[in-house]
Design a protein that fits this description.
This protein is mainly β. The protein is built from six helices and 33 strands. The radius of gyration is 23 Å and the shape is globular. The two termini are about 35 Å apart. About 50% of the residues are buried. The chain binds 2-acetamido-2-deoxy-beta-D-glucopyranose (12 copies) and copper (II) ion.
Length: about 575
């Protein structure tokens, strides 16, 4: 992985220079269009002594970096050369008025079918840092993912020390079998899907697995330098702890928003989140190498991949020294698997930078409040079959306010835009649970969820507050919720049941952290606010793909505003058809 694969934008840039735009407007930030072609094809990859033909982007695994500056337009022609239907999501990119290019299949577009292509076309507005792109159809993102690197505008610097080098660090999950077979079997039997066989760093499982030591990511550093690690969790189903032995990390940015820098030995990162950290190397090359390791946080009842991925941080030795042969290897200590209190404390350390240049525009007043109970439940097993859910007569399911969101067979955004929503979706998603219960106490007798495609309709510029309440129906479990189309501000979080009378008194409306993905604490709640200033259809879902597949997802429909710049753009002519 490197930052060296810039696309060909030279002609446009030359043109702008020729026009003298920059000379005419001193300090003017030159925005350009960056063109990419992403070819989805097959690639034979061997890990843990198992060879699989995986779906890959441009023949690379993990996929290539998409690099842009804040303000740039990005045009990506995605060509599908495989037998699967595919879509690509630009995770965290706000897609202001360009929701046609957001990517979730059957929500904003029909999938790109075999031998077809679709050109995604959007600008990067008001964001800088790291995001990720990934497939957004079934479990294809298991191997179709890569970094989005948003550099600050020209003549703008980082609000922290300029790094000597920038390095993407992507976590993933490797399966020895086809992940599509894993989820399809699970949905059929109603049981939990088979867990992955390894975690990976930049596609490599590392030395702690059998038949894997040659597939180890090595980060070679020079002493006395500051590195910017762009850390991305692209794992399918697992929230991860990460640490580098004997090194402290300084968190400076998350989900493409700057935070007040803070130091930590260990990170917690959920699928869909990105965290930029500064790594200051030791002043002299030490006589040692250091493991960098990640492994999951888990509190649920089911099985999970309880393994550890490791890479190696090694110092380049001065050239006049003979290479050191026998180096001590130090290992980091990670929190326990179920370190719920540690996770909550880590999340609370995040604060928006919130200065004049990068203000935290958290809505102070709220127009609409929502209380969503999120978690697992059951659905009945078909007659005359034995299921492998929580009981042999039930399947696992998941829901928001007891509704398991069913994807239609056409695109929701398209049916909305062309006035053909009849029979596709309804707009009566409940703002509160219809049957309240003690969410973190004894489960109700009936744990069955309902299935529907229901949306919440929001007027343009509504300021929204959402409280996400974990349910412990099948065990308290953390859910990393991801909102498409917006960033939100985490104004509060806590354990137990949310108290609407007491808890708002402690909300942070000054410098709350700005995210697109955040974990609802296991057995607790999370409150966030956002301004619905982006017309379109926006999915919100758990970023553990197993829970999404079970239905832990819903969608917002934000209506056009009155202004001409407050309406969704017309659809592109090559929008895929169902
Ligand atoms: C992958 O391996 C199979 C079996 O060896 C081979 O037939 C196929 O051509 C390979 N595919 C690619 C893309 O290299
Ligand atoms: C991308 O969108 C912009 C704005 O709508 C449009 O001017 C441009 O032609 C589009 N480019 C491509 C390659 O579709
Ligand atoms: C690394 O950390 C270990 C344990 O914290 C400590 O014993 C050791 O001296 C450190 N070594 C180096 C070279 O940093
Ligand atoms: C590094 O450590 C090894 C083994 O502990 C030792 O033999 C060697 O002399 C050390 N080298 C340096 C440069 O300190
Ligand atoms: C996870 O694996 C470790 C060994 O690597 C073991 O000690 C621990 O008990 C396991 N935890 C769970 C919850 O399975
Ligand atoms: C490497 O160093 C360790 C102690 O640090 C020592 O026990 C071992 O014998 C050394 N191995 C080699 C090949 O020098
Ligand atoms: C975590 O798991 C360990 C071992 O199963 C248990 O002793 C401990 O109480 C658990 N901690 C929490 C916070 O649940
Ligand atoms: C989390 O913070 C609370 C309050 O400061 C403290 O009591 C608790 O020990 C911390 N937990 C961990 C695991 O650090
Ligand atoms: C279930 O099995 C019984 C006995 O084999 C059979 O009579 C009945 O028709 C089956 N019901 C369904 C819905 O298939
Ligand atoms: C389901 O489990 C119950 C109790 O464990 C058992 O009595 C019953 O036979 C099982 N039913 C089927 C269809 O396997
Ligand atoms: C909800 O359940 C918890 C855990 O059992 C209990 O402590 C709490 O009192 C219950 N709350 C209500 C309002 O019943
Ligand atoms: C691909 O998507 C189209 C449109 O929704 C659908 O008709 C077709 O069955 C899908 N094909 C596959 C292989 O899933
Ligand atoms: Cu979840």
């Amino acid at each position: 992985m490197g930052l060296h694969q810039y696309p060909s934008f030279a002609p446009m840039r030359a043109l702008l220079l020729a026009l003298g735009v920059i000379l005419l407007f001193p300090g003017f930030s030159e925005s350009i269009t960056r063109h990419y072609t992403f070819n989805i094809g097959y690639l034979n990859v061997t890990r843990l002594c198992h060879t699989r033909s995986i779906l890959s982007m441009n023949g690379r695994f993990p996929g290539p970096s998409l690099i842009a500056r804040e303000g740039d337009r990005v045009v990506v022609k995605v060509v599908n050369h495989v037998s699967n239907n595919v879509t690509i999501h630009w995770h965290g990119v706000r897609q202001i008025r360009s929701g046609w290019f957001d990517g979730p299949s059957y929500v904003t577009q029909c999938p790109i079918q075999t031998n077809q292509s679709f050109t995604y076309n959007f600008t990067i507005t008001g964001q800088r840092g790291t995001l990720l792109w990934h497939a957004h159809h079934s479990w294809l993102r298991a191997t179709l993912y890569g970094p989005i690197i948003i550099l600050p505008k020209h003549n703008t610097s980082y609000p922290f020390e300029k790094p000597y080098k920038e390095i993407p660090i992507l976590f993933g999950e490797w399966f020895n079998v086809d992940p599509e077979a894993v989820i399809s079997q699970a949905l059929q039997t109603g049981g939990g899907p088979n867990v992955s066989d390894a975690y990976t760093i930049n596609g490599l499982p590392g030395p702690l697995y059998n038949c894997s030591s040659k597939d180890t990511y090595r980060l070679k550093v020079r002493p006395g330098k500051t590195y910017l690690l762009r850390i991305i969790n692209a794992a399918l189903n697992d929230e991860l702890f990460f640490s580098i032995a004997n090194h402290t990390l300084i968190v400076v940015e998350g989900d493409a928003s700057y935070v007040k820098p803070f130091e930590t030995d260990t990170l917690f990162i959920t699928p869909g989140q990105t965290i930029n950290v500064l790594l200051k190397t030791k002043p002299y090359s030490p006589n040692a190498t250091y493991l960098m390791a990640a492994r999951p946080y888990f509190t649920g009842r089911g099985t999970f991949d309880n393994s550890t991925v490791a890479g190696i941080l090694e110092y380049k030795q001065p050239s006049h020294h003979s290479p050191l042969k026998n180096l001590t290897l130090f290992k980091p200590t990670l929190p326990p698997i179920n370190a719920t209190s540690w996770v909550a404390n880590f999340t609370k350390k995040h604060r928006s930078l919130a200065n004049d240049k990068f203000p935290a525009n958290v809505p102070r007043k709220v127009d609409k409040k929502f209380f969503f109970a999120v978690g697992l439940g059951t659905s009945p097993c078909p007659k005359n079959t034995t299921c492998q859910g929580p009981t042999n007569t039930t399947k696992f399911a998941a829901s928001v306010n007891n509704i398991s969101f069913a994807l239609p067979s056409v695109s929701i955004l398209q049916s909305y835009y062309f006035g053909k929503s009849n029979g596709v979706y309804t707009t009566d998603f409940p703002a509160n649970p219809l049957n309240p219960f003690n969410y973190t106490g004894t489960p109700p007798n009936n744990t069955n969820v309902s299935n529907a495609t229901k949306l919440v309709v929001l007027q343009y510029n509504t300021s929204v507050e959402v409280v996400l309440q974990d349910t412990s129906i099948l065990g308290a479990e953390s859910h990393p919720l991801h909102l498409h189309g917006f960033d939100f501000f985490i104004v509060g979080q806590g354990f137990g049941n949310y108290d609407p009378n007491k808890d708002p008194n402690n909300f942070n409306l000054v410098d709350p952290v700005q995210k697109n993905t955040a974990s609802v604490p296991a057995g607790g709640w999370l409150a966030f606010r956002f301004l619905a200033d982006n017309p379109g259809v926006w999915l919100m879902h758990c970023h553990l793909d197993v829970h999404t597949s079970w239905g832990l997802r819903m969608a917002w429909l934000v209506l056009n505003g009155p202004g001409s710049d407050q309406k969704i753009q017309p659809p592109p002519s090559d929008l895929p058809k169902c």
